[in-house]
């Protein structure tokens, strides 16, 4: 495109555009070198309403001219959210399209996207509302990927737009890419990992609304714009049960539709751990729990694979016989949980009546859950299964191997470790390297602090003056005890780690040494607290006994009461269950 012509369109040079009416068609049809945009595309992109109106008046054929991507000027304006420009283009098209109605609105680009698809994909609520009001049937059109405008809105988490489409066009299309539908997209985007961020976003939205209402008291004319901004902010909140219920009410068959992987919406909800959606879908149709994907995996298999205990509990509570479902490799959900190392789910299945006769179930290779846990080297799950008297430890698979033949731990180590499992049933996994690392860091920090504390006092020359005070003597004893216990914790941890690395038959001893290291670390914390209280007594003296008493009581409550209380609540809440 000629540079002078391009600049004239951008700057809105009316005189130059009027001269175009006397020019040849070759001048009018000039396009840019990149996307092959016409002068009307450029005007739509820059938002020049008067310029675009003058161009259409002179050359109405440019309304339907497309660029290299197949985009009409309406596509360009919809992508950028140019509401006034879109209204102008639509009104002008009504005057031009006498024989073929709504041709511009239904034009598609190379991806088969209409202007509505483009507007939804970019989250322009006003543009979507305008286009649907002009032609509601746009909500029925699928693009080349099979995506409807409603699917795109949910997939991009623009739920205000999705709600508007659903309310305005009840017969809209629900289809999406890869044979998915709107329910698939809603459940995928409603992953529970993002609920905390969404909740924070909702709090911020509430605060914004309160501010908007306050501003409206001072400036009522701003209410309409402020309310619209509030609606747009709500469009980024997580999908709610009301939307899912509305979709299921309008089209219940969506819950049983499978994508290319064979996954129905329930499979996605189970795999992502969304127990609320799982219950909602099962209340709509309980038979969904028995649907399998192309690998033969049911929702219970997928929840076991991902380690979502609450989902597994709801599935077995509503559909108890799903425990008997087998995948294409003849594996139960217990096999899958053992293969994935999901200790919390395995522990639940062992207590569930539906699995009482399935603990020794063999898959197509003859492997029981114990075989699989041993082969995958999931020591915690392996020991948990081996410690259950109902599990057949001598079962042989098709290769003639027992679980102990496939285990990284010899039978003697397993037997020695069963007692350790019983004593640590409610706590973190004994074999967790993360737990040992945390204990090592804490012990090292306490050793460094207590070592530095006593030498700091000596360097300041205060030992001679404080030596006779009982509080100082207690401080020295507690500080020394904390230092000794922390160093002992580090030593025992290293001995256990090295011993386990040299010989596998010492794994049980390594577990016990690790437990002792944690116990020494805990006692060193208590010693440091006592040292702090004694030091406070020395600093405060007899004249400030009240200050000392308050400080000591507060410190003791935090260490001896608050710490164990939080730990107990956390372990019962399931933090260490995975």
Automatic annotation (TrEMBL):
<feature type="repeat" description="ANK">
    <location>
        <begin position="69"/>
        <end position="91"/>
    </location>
</feature>
<feature type="repeat" description="ANK">
    <location>
        <begin position="329"/>
        <end position="361"/>
    </location>
</feature>
<feature type="transmembrane region" description="Helical">
    <location>
        <begin position="472"/>
        <end position="498"/>
    </location>
</feature>
<dbReference type="Pfam" id="PF12796">
    <property type="entry name" value="Ank_2"/>
</dbReference>
<keyword id="KW-0040">ANK repeat</keyword>
<feature type="transmembrane region" description="Helical">
    <location>
        <begin position="519"/>
        <end position="539"/>
    </location>
</feature>
<dbReference type="GO" id="GO:0005886">
    <property type="term" value="C:plasma membrane"/>
</dbReference>
<dbReference type="InterPro" id="IPR002110">
    <property type="entry name" value="Ankyrin_rpt"/>
</dbReference>
<dbReference type="InterPro" id="IPR036770">
    <property type="entry name" value="Ankyrin_rpt-contain_sf"/>
</dbReference>
<feature type="repeat" description="ANK">
    <location>
        <begin position="111"/>
        <end position="143"/>
    </location>
</feature>
<dbReference type="Pfam" id="PF13962">
    <property type="entry name" value="PGG"/>
</dbReference>
<keyword id="KW-1133">Transmembrane helix</keyword>
<keyword id="KW-0472">Membrane</keyword>
<feature type="transmembrane region" description="Helical">
    <location>
        <begin position="440"/>
        <end position="460"/>
    </location>
</feature>
<feature type="domain" description="PGG">
    <location>
        <begin position="437"/>
        <end position="538"/>
    </location>
</feature>
<protein>
    <recommendedName>
        <fullName>PGG domain-containing protein</fullName>
    </recommendedName>
</protein>
<dbReference type="InterPro" id="IPR026961">
    <property type="entry name" value="PGG_dom"/>
</dbReference>
<feature type="region of interest" description="Disordered">
    <location>
        <begin position="402"/>
        <end position="428"/>
    </location>
</feature>
<feature type="repeat" description="ANK">
    <location>
        <begin position="261"/>
        <end position="293"/>
    </location>
</feature>
<feature type="transmembrane region" description="Helical">
    <location>
        <begin position="199"/>
        <end position="223"/>
    </location>
</feature>
<keyword id="KW-0812">Transmembrane</keyword>
<feature type="transmembrane region" description="Helical">
    <location>
        <begin position="545"/>
        <end position="569"/>
    </location>
</feature>
<keyword id="KW-0677">Repeat</keyword>
